[in-house]
Specification:
By secondary structure, the chain is mostly helical. It is built from four helices and no strands.
Amino acid sequence: MAKCDEGYLCEVCGQDVSSLVDSDLYLRYVIGMLDPEVLHTQKERHIRCNPTLAQFIVDEKFEPVVAEGDFDKRALDPQFVYLREQLVTRGWHRLRELVQQDLPIIEYPLPEVVENIRHRSGYEQ
């Protein structure tokens, strides 16, 4: 995480979101739920403090989260759940990779998200 991105407090629990791998904000950015232009305007949360998204991370290194209520994945369409698990888990893996790398923030997202951003901006390589 860049030095300027350290020290953000979770809007849910009030604790410091001290690591990129715990950041709901960056997870949403990496998987394409946030455009780079609005990243700096969004509130930060721990991934676990957003159970609606966290429930889709399926990895033995991530303790499962249950989202009770209308957005509980157990009540959603199985195909949607499968696709969302694939995307969000890949995003979480990407966060784990990013802490080992020194990349510009525009290269944080998954490859298909970066391509989509470039396409929307009219920048094609």
